[in-house]
Each structure stands twice: as C-alpha cells, then as structure tokens.
C-alpha cells in the first residue's frame, strides 16, 4: 500500500497520520501545539512531527508529506500567522533532512478541498433553485439559467479560530491576493467585543472555540456546551450570542454569494444540533426575501484538515494528480 | 454605421439610446419610469420605449435591443422585482411586434459587464499584492502565487437602491441560483433601521439614494449632498451614517473576497470625493490586519447600465460575440 504523510497544525493540537489515495487515514496521532512557547517552538515541533512521519515503517516510506497550517500561506512560505506569530517561515524550515517532497498549504483551504473530494452530497445548484419557493415561481428557471453543474459552498471550520473556504463554481476562491475567506473577522457587531485581530465585533470574537471558552471563563468550548446543556445562564447567553453572530455572518454570505450550502466543520461543529438547529432558525429569520441555504455539519468532522493535508501530499508526489 | 438599441430601466428614470460596438452612445434619451402607476404601467412604458427605438431611422434599424432591468432576471423572464412589483414577466411582454432580437438582462450585472469591457484600468492582482505592505513582507509572493492575471472587483452602483456586480477572476459571479450580489441587504447594523425588503439594518436602508432622501425628508440624494455641503446638521448625520454603513459593507466584502478594487457607480457616486474620501478613511480604519482595496468612482458613471444593455444587445445579434 502506498501512502503520504499528512499533518494538520491547529491552534491547540497537531493531527498527523498516513493517508491513502482514497482519503483513508492510518496511524492517526495527536500532539499538542506548543503555541505558548513562541513561534520557533511551534516550527520545531512541526518539523519533528514531519521528520517522524517521513521515516520508513516496515521498509516503506511515505511518498510525500502534506502540511496544512493556518494564516496566509503560499506553496513556499508560511507568510503570516497571527496564532503562532509566524512571519515568512520558509517551507524548508518544516522539512529539514526529509528525503521526500513536503507540500505546504493553508489549513482551511485544504480542509475545503477535502470536503469537495471526500465530503459527499453537496447538493446540486438545481436543487437549490427548486428550494427557493414562495412567490418566486420561476426560481427553478433561474437555477437552470445560472446554476447548472456548479457547486457553490461555504466550508466553515470553527476551531480555536474561524476562517472559511469559499467554494465557487466547484473551486476554492483565493481573491486578488490570496486573502479571501477571512469570514472570522467580518464585523457582525459593529463596535462590539474586542477581537485579538485588533478589530471589534468580529464573528470570531463571539463564535470561535477560543472566544466561547474565554467569554465563559472555562478551558474549552466543550465545557461551554456542557454548561449550556446543563442550564447554566452565562453559558446560555454566550452560546446564544455565538449562534446570533454566526447567523449574521451567514445572512451576509448568503446575500452576497448565494451558496447552495454551508458546511460547518471543526471542533465546535461537534455540538451538532445544539448549534445547527438554532443557527438554521436564526438564519431563516434574518432572510426576509429569499430562502436560506442548507446548513449542515461536515461529514468529515475535525479530520477534514488532515485529509486536506493528505491531498496536498498526494499532489506533491511526482507524476500524481492528487485525486483518486 | 451599425448599432443596437439599449434601454436601462432604473427606479426613477429609463435611459435609452443606440450603442455601437465600441460602446459609444448615440441619440441618448431619458424617460420617467412610471413606478407609482403599478407593475403593468412600467411594463407598458418599457415596451413603448423598445418599440420606438426599434423603428428604422434613415432606413436603418438597430440590429437588436438590449434591455437591462432590476431584480431577479433570466434571459426569458423578469422573475421578480421588488421595485416594480414584477412577478414572472416574460421577455416577450417588453417586445411586442419588434422584428429584431430583444435580449433581457440584469441591470447591475450588465453595468458590471460594461465596466469590465469599457471601464479602463482595473488594477492587476499583482499590483494589489504589492500594495499590501506593513509587516507582511512576502504578500507580493502571495499575489504571484494566487493572483496572476485575475481581475477581482466589486462594482457597486448606488442609485435608488443598491446591488452589486461581483466580479471574480474576471467574470461576473451569479451564485448557485442567480441571487448573488445582494449587498444592499446585508445586515450592517443588526436590529437597525427598517428596510423596504422586510429586514432591518440593511446597507440600502442607510446608503441608497432612496434612503438618503427619505431620512432627510427631501426629494433626492442630490439635495441631501447639497445640504450636507452647506453645513446642515441632519444632512451631515445622514451622510455620515451612509458612509459608515458603506464602510462596514466593504470591510466585510474585502475580508470575504479580497477584491483588488471597489468601483462605485450610480447617481450617488456623482458626489465624488465627498463620498469617496471619508469612505476610504472609514474602510481603512476598520481593517486592522490588511490593507484596503482601491476604492474609486466608475469612469462610466450613471451610463454603465446603458452601455451594459448595449452589450446585451450586441450579444443577441446573430453571429456576434458582443464585444468589439
């Protein structure tokens, strides 16, 4: 069996493993991300993880390594990461003495690619058109005129932070300079809560896992959810404000880009219907003259980033296209 | 000289004329849009305008008619228009007894096409990348990696209402069902001013020409501008809130889609630097970790819609591609 090694570097945890062409993960392993120890410590920890996974096992070496990191990323550099304090870290810093190709990519965009490749039933644009109802009787026509064969999806992993993979007409969209998808920092509450990015009222300041935990004074978003389900008043308030902030962001995204679906991933999406049911209701309530897109949890869950790192690795294998 | 006829149906005025392949407008004419007289009256007025322009002059008939209307539009139907109360008006209703092809299209999207075809210097994505500065030293690399040869622009005509033409990678983007670009109704002020669309806090409820006039209790946006420049306190307040609402919308658009430029058109854009200078400052102030895109006025001004209608017409001429 041939495989690549893959690592998804998150704000709290690094996930690693071997990924086959069909997206199956073997030898899954988690390591803590030593974020508190500074920029170089995180680079060193990633580099050590890469070196360990690139080593031969039973005489077989992975064909390549795919490495997904947050921030602004090019194939040659981790240009900028607020989470880790990175500035212009060259890809080679993560790949000392590794004799196979190491491919660097953006965590959320890679996860979006995995969602496209492995995530299953993204509904067709024709379905989306038919789903518009009410008094717009020919919206099916509109879908036939504009939407045939396209796939227009926002993939929104909610982890320690929030970014989005903007999938338009079946492909990831990067924008003029590669900065598209910063939905975590759109001002959903002008003048609202201060965000670590330097702005106020950002989506991430209400709805990221980091914000949920900090606003409740607990260690993680799971604990906020547990307290909310147990009836804790502060947790209910924080959870409700997160849902409203997400609904505002998705209202804006829907009106601007008319997606067929929004796919929520990342650790916070594991709350399931405790998140999705009130979010769907709030989004529908805010849209007065059009239907809401489908809002669902990622079928890949928190492993989408690792599977996306695998796709990065497969694309770096000489002669391989990266998709099975 | 061969030409097509073109009509741009606005909320207040219909503009019509003949358009040559290079976008030159001849025999320009304005007629009032009889919006207050109901849906059928507007259809009848448009139909009469089409018939008049399609008539031969000096023995020469236009090769086709391009007709740009607001709302949700397919090539066969004006599916929905809140402004006119239209539901499923077939294109044929506008083209009774006209012996040349009549092409129906969306006003803002057509204006965006005209901006792309005739609007001149949309900056290259490479320029945009180099314009990112500060501590992100390799952002030029990012532009080279992601942005080469693309044109990523928001074209934002501000007239009686507000919609946007979302230009991504050099092409207009319609979304899954043809509803993309509804930037006029994104919730920039959650819970804010009631909008005619049924939502609250929409961009258009603060910054459209209609809202500017209504909030000042005057007849038109020009009068609001005049009073603002004359030092009227209420006009200054309304103008300032419009600028802030636009800055919020453009902050969100920039973070989501990373455009190289935002091109403001429509009647309100004729305010020039009285609008653009404070808008640029407010947008820059709201973006903490990235530069703002270029914000400029459309070089086509309020004629972009008519030139776009001309492109619709040229595309309907048998054997023509629609661009010179």
TrEMBL record, chains A, B:
Family from the record: Belongs to the ROK (NagC/XylR) family.
Protein name, per record: ROK family protein
Signal sequence interval, chain numbering: none
Coiled-coil stretches: none
Organism domain of life: Bacteria
InterPro entries according to UniProt: ATPase_NBD, ROK
Transmembrane domains' residue ranges: none
